[in-house]
Amino acid sequence: MTDVRQLTDSEREMILYFYWEKGDVARWCDWEKVQPILERHHPELLKAFRDVEVAKRILDCVVEAL
């Protein structure tokens, strides 16, 4: 049986809260739990979050090398 579970309204609100208010969705304790749902239904969102994390690490290295 395929899991077709979508994000709940509460999960959507938490993603928005941790992104906009806290600046880091990984701080949300259920972030790991919703990643498979995002991978199935919103892979572009999960890819964008990963790309931002990589970009932050690159920026840190570049600034440190100044």
How many helix segments? 3
Distance, first to last CA: 54 Å
The H-and-E topology, N to C, reads as: HHH
Instruction: Evaluate the radius of gyration.
Output: 14 Å
Total individual domains:
1
- Estimate the mean pLDDT confidence: 93
Helical content stands at over 70%
Strand count, sense and closure of the main sheet? none
The coarse overall form would be elongated
Q: What is the percentage of strand-forming residues?
A: under 5%
Number of β-strand runs: 0
Poorly predicted regions are: none
Query: Which structural class do you get from the secondary structure elements?
Result: mainly alpha
Task: Tell me what you see in this structure.
With 66 residues, this protein is mainly α. The protein has one domain. 71% of the residues lie in helices and 0% in strands. It contains 3 helices and no strands. The protein is elongated, with a radius of gyration of 14 Å. 5% of the residues are buried.
Summary tags:
mainly alpha; single chain; 66 residues; 3 helices
Helices, strands, pairings?
Elements: H1 9-22, H2 31-41, H3 43-64
Helix pairs in contact: 2-3
Q: How would you summarize this macromolecular structure in one to three sentences?
A:
The chain has 66 residues and is an all-alpha fold. It contains 3 helices and no strands. The radius of gyration is 14 Å and the shape is elongated.
